[in-house]
Amino acid sequence: MDTTMQAQQHATSRVVLVSLAAAMGGFLFGFDSAVINGAVDAVRGGFALDAARIGFAVSCALLGAALGAWYAGPVADRWGRVRTMQVAAVLLFASALGSGLVVGLWDLIAWRFVGGVGIGVASVIAPAYIAEVSPAHVRGRLGSLQQLAIVLGIFAALLSDAWIAGVAGGAAKSAWLGMEAWRWMFLVATVPALIYGTLVLGVPESPRHLVAKGRIDEARDVLRQMLALPNGPALEAKLHDIQRSLASEVRPRLRDLRGQRLGLLPIVWVGIALSVFQQAVGINVIFYYSSTLWHSVGFSESDAFTITVVTSVVNVLVTLLAIALVDKVGRKPLLVVGSVGMTVTLGLMALCFAQATGEGASLSLPQPWNMVALVSANAYVVFFGLSWGPMVWVLLGEMFPNRIRAIALAVAASAQWLANFAVTVSFPKLAEIGLSFAYGLYATFALLSLVFVLKAVRETRGVELEDMQG
């Protein structure tokens, strides 16, 4: 698209509002993912679970997320982006309600799996939708709303966990209606699920989906509202660009992703690798297990909850900084800075935990290593939140050619959730081997992510979606 047409596009208040509504799925994604943090110890004690079973109970939602992400693309191409978001809201509401009322381990696993499917659907559809309704010059900032919503959801979940545990006197203690506090931690998630489902009722369909379905007049109306393009050559040229980019599309299928290099197109492998590296650096260990981790190295349960909430606040603030920088600095430079910073901070954490004494519940970090570990963990969150957190979602929403975007994003997001599952389910066992080993492994992946970005990732700042090449 030429620069004259780009100059005529504006990020209207409407496009910002609908992007915020779509990103609410990210809030639920973050909330539902992190709410288990405060409940881990209580669930483990209440159901007498060993490390392997608590690891699976925490991470089973991620298998559901991989399934939801895999099918989100085809469902979104068939039913539309908006209807797919509504499905995600229903699944997340049902999961929150069911998880809070479970009577045993296996129904908790089942309801967490259902919620995971909803998370997976939301993780694919929100960045795709936001990218498709946004002008190119602000697409990075609006796409970063997904990650901002995720970290706000994490913060809200950890804050509500801390408050509920504080009121009850502990996550395993009785709270309202005679139910344990950890049950209320899950039940609270029904509120944002209802809000999300209500908000997406007023969101317009993606113009690219409308064009793909031959609903040209509706697409023209949406483009006029979203990009403030008046009737005339600029609006018709934008429609023509979308039609041109979709001209070869029948319905995207997995076979459309085939290429000569290891069976897939190079751009698809880049998307998969971005997704895997985002999880392989161990970020969700901080948000799924941090309360247990800080409790185990000498902090009280109350202090451990407080530290976890503070860490999530840091994550929110640095994500705001990333939003301010993404369309000025670009995606690739931020990823490079993040990889370097994470390598250093994770290496420091590995060094700190090499000084630990005891094991399991009696693990202890001596002074000053416990404070160095605490500072390093928060610095690690800063580097992740500035780079790999938001940038991966921005890139996945925009880097693929239009004709394969939905299905390629589904494949990449599924890979991300499987990597997330592998990291999360393995952490309790890795922790038994030694936390120094675990964080050293994550530091190695952070270093490998730097090599990958320098060699394989292309900058997409300012490029129109219709001009993305495979």
Structure, described:
With 470 residues, this protein is mainly alpha-helical. It has one domain: Growth Hormone, Chain: A, CATH 1.20.1250. It is built from 20 helices and no strands. Helix 5 packs antiparallel against helix 9, helix 13 packs antiparallel against helix 18 and helix 15 packs antiparallel against helix 16. The chain starts with a helix and ends in a 14-residue tail after the last helix.
Short description:
By secondary structure, this protein is mostly helical.
Q: CATH H level: which superfamily?
A: MFS general substrate transporter like domains
User: What about the largest sheet?
Assistant: none
Q: Measured on Cα atoms, how large is the radius of gyration?
A: 22 Å
User: What is the tally of beta strands?
Assistant: 0
Q: Give the overall shape, derived from the CA principal axes.
A: globular
Structural class: mainly alpha
**Roughly what fraction of the amino acids lie in strands?**
under 5%
Mean pLDDT: 80
Please name the CATH topology.
Answer: Growth Hormone, Chain: A
